[in-house]
Write a structure and sequence with these properties.
alpha+beta
Length: 146
Amino acid sequence: MTKAEIIRLIQAALCELKEAAQKMVEDTVPATPLPRPRRFVFVRGVEYPYINKKGEPNWESVKVGGNEGYLPGSISYYCNVAHDIAARTQFKPRNVLRAIRRIQAATEWCKARHKGRLRAAKEVIRQQKRAAEMLEAELVINNLKQ
């Protein structure tokens, strides 16, 4: 397996992570809170998500070394982060596979949090529906009393 192929594999895993992170942070109706961040270390010096000094996570960003490596739509960013991860694994198949599995674990975590936020929104709607029906019943009772 060539170095370019290894970088492409890592890049594909990062693209999937970015898509899952974007879905996870989408607004829900009604609004639900974002999850508490969980730190994923892909390789030494490369972490997800980037957490700023205030403790706020940037879900579409990976911390590379002391810097922030963003994962926007540009292929060059994916390539830079993927190349850095590959270089830190020294292109050893075992280390590359471990890094890819960790990226995939972060992706699955994001997907699970997205599903959880959707379930929470459904539950809020269900609870609000019940309360609205009770208020309607109270209104009918008050109208009958008058």
